[in-house]
Amino acid sequence: MQNLGDFKLPHFFNYPPYFTLQPVRDTREKQVQVWKELIIDYCRTQKIFVIGLEEEFPLFSNPVIERSLSHEAREAFLSALVSEGRAEWLGKGHRKCLILWHHIQDWADIILRFVKDNGLEDSVITVEEMRSGVECRGTELHGIDRAILMRALRLLEQKGKLAIFKGTSADDEGVKFSM
To answer: Any stretches that span the bilayer, and where are they (predicted)?
Structure first.
């Protein structure tokens, strides 16, 4: 089995036909499913939130077997994630894809657990501290994409769990939890 850094690649990664969109519907459905799982698992473990369709991405080629996914295959696999709500196209050009290895509601739950675990109920914390502060190191929130974090925070705000305070810049936006 091959590794990509500390990530173990599945056996199919060394099977050349998986790098070519399969014409038979049943085979293609299986192919799309394993690629979706691989993309989500890889992005989760490597904390990758955005994949550029036309940019280098380690999973999209395998130098060992001298194979790369075509643009059409990349778009098919990312579009399949989008159709499941596991990703979203950024912009109208469909050139970049935001990967949601957790749904927004799940991120909101992770935030609430983080707040409780760190005794931050009825506290104020900046958005940046939530992404890169000492308390978040070693948690799933460390390094979270800002857009995903803000969407989860807005969801919690709608539910009355917190209030978001605008600062003079994006770096000093604050969040007051009321749980």
So the answer is: none
User: Domain ends where: 80, 99, 118?
Assistant: 99
Q: What is the pTM of this model?
A: 0.87
Expressed as residue numbers, the domain containing 141 is: 104-177
pLDDT above 90 for 149: yes
Strands 87-90 and 174-177, by their bridges, are unpaired
Enumerate helices (H) and strands (E) in the chain, giving the number of each.
5, 10
In the block, residue with structure tokens 């760190």 = 118
Q: Which of 67, 79, 85, 83 is nearest to 9 (CA)?
A: 67
Cα 41–chain centre separation: 9
How far apart are the C-alpha atoms of 52 and 57, rounded to whole Å?
A: 8
